[in-house]
Amino acid sequence: MKDMGAAALAGAAALLTNSDDAEATSTWAEFFQKNYRLMTEEEKKDAILRLEQRYSEEYGKTVTVDGAPPMKDVLFGYALNIQKCIGCRRCVYACVKENNQSRNNPEIQWIRVIRMEKGNFSTENMDKGYPAGEGDQTYTNKDYGIQVGGNAYINAGVTLEGQHYYQPEQVPEKDAFYFPIQCMQCEKPPCVKVCPVRTTYREPDGIVVIDYNWCIGCRMCISACPYWARRFNWGDPNLPAQEMNPKTHYLGNRPRMRGVAEKCTFCLQRTRQGRYTACVEVCPVGARKFGNLLDPGSEVRKILDRKRVFRLKADLNTYPKFFYFID
Q1: Which residue ranges make up each domain of the chain?
Q2: How many CB atoms lie within 10 A of CB 125?
Q3: Bridge partners of 163?
Q4: Is the dihedral of CA 212, 239, 85, 281 positive or negative?
Q5: How confident is the model at residue 21 (pLDDT cuts 50, 70, 90)?
Q6: Residue-wise pLDDT tens digits, 203-246
Q7: What is the pTM of this model?
């Protein structure tokens, strides 16, 4: 049976190879190609060439698909100053443009900027408890709950939520602060652990990538991510030809297809060439920093050594390489 199956596959491949339908041939080849990290160098070149030809025809421009591997002695890290962020979301729009994200129907954005109300929590009030409640109800200093924004006198158990979508006339707003979130490029990524086909994995330079051709659309990685950093293409991505960035990477910003997951890749099509990410370059206040964690002289390492730094949801032991800091 195995020999018959192999013969059938070979025969079908021969028919397609001899066919004038180049698109069908390319689709067949992609369907049976290996996981990217298991390919030989020759197989990678063939896969990249097929994609370059297809994308160039589809978008009417010369599209390049890079396959640059991780650089030696490099572990990428990111640091964001939450005191400086003004909530302009230029990082969001630059990311969309650079990484060929679907523009609308569906609209996909890898970066979220959450708006939160500034609190007026005072350490001087810590031992005073809450003010007297209604009727016979009173609050003591044991009633403090965990809050986002607000103030020290909100009833215990009340949690204020941040806003993902906000449209003020001007930013920054007087009584708000902003908290950007994207893929944390975890050292122990739960998304990698749950992927049943190992289409997502962590590269030696610390970037967690996805081989879109191997993604089966099960969305287990999306459920496992505690940062809601992954997106899913429920429909065919909407990427106008005139807005398509033709400089792509196989594991990064090349156009995706319906039924696959995607996320931030630290702009590996740029960073593996020694450039900054698009979001770092566009930030008007210099709140975003990026560099090599293995280099003691890099800006991001100096921040970790000298600033007050924290990781989001550090208790989950995912060990993000995306840090937040304050001056």
Answers
A1: 76-111+182-326, 117-176
A2: 16
A3: 115
A4: positive
A5: low
A6: 999 999 999 999 999 999 999 999 999 999 999 999 999 999 99
A7: 0.82
Beta-carbon count within 10 A of 50 CB:
18
Task: State how far the Cα of 109 lies from the Cα of 99, in Å rounded to an integer.
Answer: 10
Angle, CA of 153, 159 and 165, to the nearest 5° = 120
DSSP reduced 3-state for 51: helix
**What DSSP letter does each residue of 198-250 carry, written as one string?**
--EEE-TTS-EEE-GGG-----HHHHH-TT---EE-SS-----GGG---EEET
Structure tokens at 216: 């089966």
Sign of the CA dihedral with 184 first, then 185, 190, and 191 last: positive
CATH classification of 76-111+182-326, choosing from 3.30.70.20, 1.10.390.10, 3.40.50.720, 3.40.640.10? 3.30.70.20
212-215 contacts, C-beta under 8 A, 24 or more apart:
212/254, 212/256, 212/257, 212/260, 212/262, 213/30, 213/33, 213/36, 213/47, 214/35, 214/36, 215/259, 215/260, 215/261
pLDDT digits (tens, 9 = 90+) for 137-187: 444 444 333 344 444 444 444 445 678 788 888 999 998 989 999 999 999
pLDDT of 163 reads 82
pLDDT attached to residue 222: 98
Q: Which two tokens stand for residue 297?
A: 């002289």
Chain-centre distance for alpha carbon 285:
22
- One-letter amino acid identity for 197? V
Whether residue 27 is predicted with pLDDT greater than 90 in this model: the reply is no
Q: Can you point out the beta strands (E) in 145-190?
A: 176-181
